[in-house]
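The aim of this short unit is practical: by the end, you should be able to scan a pair of folded records and say something sensible about each. We start with the first protein, listed as its amino acid sequence and then its structure tokens.
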Amino acid sequence: MEYLHHNSQGTIVHCDLKPSNILLDENMTAHVGDFGISRSKDDSTTVSLGDSKRTSSIAIRGTIGYVAPEYTGGGEVSTAADVYSFGVVLLEIFIRKRPTDIMFKDGLSIVTFAETNFPDRVLEIVDPQMLQESDLGPKIPASAKEKLVDQCLTSVINIGLCCTKPTPSERIGMQEVAAKLHGIKDAYLRGAEETVV
């Protein structure tokens, strides 16, 4: 997403980011697919890919649960809406609940669920299997392992929440998201090495 928003010729807004549109290759590197409703954004105008018609706002068909709140009112295509969708995907991966899960009703969403439990109860809402698979080896004391995992998971959930702020201007950009995620990975690996040594 960072590349689509910042490193390609012009800005591409995906408009329908969700897990089924993210493909993993043999190295577990993620690739975004299905650009059926994506838009190329050039300055203040938006161009539909495959369509030369220019418009400043368009009706968005996204996927329920991943669509940014501003799109429900016919809001303008923006990279901030992709950031929102990315945040929902990130929360879904770590909490292991779809944004359309039956538990999310009566005003509760995956975002409000994460907000309500952040930061004190993050370990209670993340996927328990993820906690089991975070085994850093027998040489690391359990308390040090739990602290390292808690710090990293809290940081990741925080990024998801920064991406899913209610208004586009409050959300962080994909460059910042990518930098923060790389930083968390590096801190996790560095922390694991330092704890063993």
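Turning to the second protein, read its sequence before its tokens, just as you did above.
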Amino acid sequence: MKVERLLNILMYLINHDKVSANALAKHFDVSKRTIQRDIDHLTLAGIPIYSEIGRSGGYQLMDHFKMDKNYLNASESNLLYTFLSDIERTTPSDEIQTTCNKLMALFPQETDNDRLIIQMMPQFIQENFSAVFNQLTRARDEHLKVIVIYIDAELNETKRIIHPYRLVLMGNTWYVYGFCELRDAFRLFKISRMIRCDCSEKTFTVRDLPDKLPWHNQMDSDRKSEKIVLELDRCLLGRLSDYFDYHNCDVQEDKIIATLNFPIDEWLLTLLCQLIPYVKIIEPLSLKKKFNDRLQKAIQNNI
């Protein structure tokens, strides 16, 4: 029994007055007995489904449960379809394609893709990315262990056995969050660093997730945030909102003082490098030293 099929059966009943068990079984490519069990699960969950027996019988929702067709209008469907389609182009996924097809089925004549354009930066140049992503999707849904060949920041290969729980998109980077048998702990893995991923036929026991999850802070870092003060050239004024909360920026005659709270990690150093030569670190001194060390190394490598 899959939660997705239960939801799809519910949506099907919402959009049809009455449907027989045979028709549902054919539509969802399962047995009539499976449909009957699914209907029982929905009924136990409190969904008011009325059933009639006989040649003209079938299942239907009670009238008071019918969903207003304005619950999802054409414009909202277009927004979801455009966003998901762009993700599907950069990260091909069967489940995303299925969702797009369902949206098209709801509004076949009304979806206007020219009204909203979303272009995410494609980063995935690995030929095997789609295969890895779909393997992880299957493993997540069926609670299967995956055997992964993973490269670390130093390009060293390690073999990991991972129990995948979540697929996470942060910024333009895809991750899988799961339990790592090697580390005996939950970890966040960059999918772009997986050069091979194979589903095993061994299932894993679902564990409770930690209270604190990596994406709650919207940062790929476990470090605590620190107060950071930057002096920026005024020429960055037009790009200020791309990087900082303008409420925390003091715009002066010839410079901008930006105050922020971030972990001092690779993400922050990469951001500061994008602002060269228009940034000066006021505090903390530890960040200034790390930044200067990186600059010196870059200069030495290019002499």
